[in-house]
Amino acid sequence: MQPRYSVIIPFFNEAGNVLPLVESVSGQPFHSQEPTEILLIDDGSTDNTPAELAIAAKQYPDCRIISFVRNRGQAAALLEGLQQARGSVLLTLDGDGQNDPDDLTRMLPLVTAGTADLVCGIRTPRQDSGLRRAMSRLANAVRSRVLGDGIRDAGCQLRVFRRDVVACLQPSPLLQAFLPAMAVAAGFRVAEMPVRHHPRRRGASKYGLRRLWWRPATEMFRLRRLLAKDRKRNP
User: Fold this and answer.
1) How much is the mean pLDDT over the chain?
2) Fewest C-beta in 10 Å: which of 39, 77, 150, 190?
3) What number does CATH give the domain 5-233?
């Protein structure tokens, strides 16, 4: 049966987080109300994540595993999931257990009712270190000013959007952070909603200073030139 909803979750070395997260997603009302597929992308994990994904797929038949032989990064994992998704509405979240799948159920009606094409979460409050929160606030302020997207929390991966949005995405090694800006530049209606953010209980963050600041800054200015063309076509 053709799914209406596709839930896309990238994983990289998230042993211990896989099964609780998949169980929570599978228990959401939209999963039982409409045909839903859950795409589990293994981004070349070297811990017990692949084994846990196999258990999840066995327990929940709506799951489909996509595996990379080597680690290719969150952007590549996300893009692969988006390209292989079959649903008309796409839902994304991180695999680290800090996002709450219950929030997807709250965000979904804005898209299904036609109020927005893309709904992005705003993590409130952030359950990260003070330094990381400060860096994120600064990065979001700079990015919003440079790209003009108005997005308050581009790092939050809790998103719900129409499949049509995928067509506007530009190749980027930081697609996960700049997806909302690309949608805004293409003329899609983008809304935001406060969402919960849980402390990380297992595993470690994959983002250090270089990934949180230097790489996004250089990619941001490259994308500004590309997105300016989209804005001219979609004033």
Assistant:
1) 88
2) 150
3) 3.90.550.10
